[in-house]
Amino acid sequence: MKVPVESRVDTWVVIAAYNEGAVIGGVVRELVLDGYTVIVVDDGSRDDTGAQAQAAGAVMLRHAINRGQGAALQSGFRYALDHGARIVVTFDADGQHDVSDVSRLVEPILGGEADIALGSRFLEHAAGVPPARRMLLRAAVAFTSVVSGVSLTDAHNGMRALSRRAAEQVDLRLDRMAHASEIIDQIVRTGLRVTEVPVAVRYTPYSVRKGQHASAAARIALDYLFHKLND
Amino acid sequence: MGLFQIVALGFTAVMLVVSVRSLIRARSRPLPSVFWLLIWSAAGVALTMPNATTRVAQGLGIRRGADLVLYSTTLGFLIGSYLVYLKVRQLTREITVLTRQLAILEAQRTNAPERHTPSSTARK
Fold first, then answer.
1. CB-based contact (8 Å) between A165 and chain B?
2. Does the beta-carbon distance from A60 to B124 stay under 8 Å?
3. What is the dihedral of CA A167, A171, A177, A181, to 10 degrees?
4. CB–CB of A175 and B96 under 8 A?
5. FRET label pair with A208: which of A34, A84, B11, B77, CA 20 to 30 Å apart?
6. Global confidence as pTM
């Protein structure tokens, strides 16, 4: 089922971007051409990310200082909901996602089968994942399964779609990368219906350079555990 | 009385005066000042009567007064670190909320309403 264009108007794609001036224009342009409303949260970039995003047709929200991806997405959620979004989609700024996957991701929500659709690179496109990244992501999946009690195939995929009801209940308090685990925790806690949808992830030299590395994984896990213990 | 005791006692006396002054100034919220008053008083007693710490230690089942001071300091440091962590967390949260609020207000001012609808060039 292809998402009708009139539904795309109310589908807000939220992109958190930090120093992504080189690629953000192309990413936004593709989404806008597909009819989605795009909001870019420029998270205190020192380059021309905001200007590029705006020129490409995005609604722009600018954090005066860098607060992290989780904080930026939460800002985008709030703005999108305040402006009537029916579905909110999160999308990475580095060009690793395929715009055509947004339509697949939104489908179960439009069909009323789920409140949240999480993108998974391991359902159909696992072959393209570099081995080191694959190991790291598998560890993240195991970690999420232990701490949140939910079994997923991909725990840290930047593509997610949330119904309005779901987005209203999500309140990301982990400002940095650990928000990806926090959002799953909140889904479990609120009893929202979740499904996984296969999406492709393109590993370009740029996205690999900008992506998370093994050294950051320990910090993400610690951030999340500290937050969980003190929540 | 050794040189260390003299210097430490002088410092403790200054801190006691500071604590008393802040207690007088912050009568509506006296607990933090009372806490520091007790800490500096205990430090003064330990410095002037080292044997007193040993008696207190033995009363608590610890053999030496020095051990009591070490354990208390370690425990105090850990509790303090945790409280600082909570405070930093709260401040971080407040900075994020403030940053978000500013961003939203600015966006409402600058983003023209027509931007909120998809481009006329959208693929059908």
1. no
2. no
3. -80
4. yes
5. A34
6. 0.85
- State mean pLDDT over A141-158: 87
SS3 A162: strand
Strands, DSSP E only, in chain A?
Answer: 11-17, 37-43, 59-63, 87-90, 116-120, 160-163, 194-198
Q: Nearest by CB to A32, which of B100, B103, B119? A: B119
Give kind and range of the element (H or E) at residue B81: helix B65-110
Bridge-based pairing of strands A37-43 and A59-63 is: parallel
Which of B103, B111, B118 is facing A36, going by the closest CB pair?
B118
CA angle at residue A113 from A107 to A116, to 5 degrees? 70
In the predicted model, residues of chain B with pLDDT beneath 70 are 112-124
* Residues written for chain B: 124
Would you tell me the crossing angle of helices B65-110 and A214-230 to the nearest 10 degrees?
Answer: 100
Residue A168 near residue A78 (C-beta atoms within 8 A): no
Put simply, whether B3 touches A (Cβ < 8 Å) is no
Distance separating alpha carbons of residues A72 and A39, to the nearest angstrom: 11
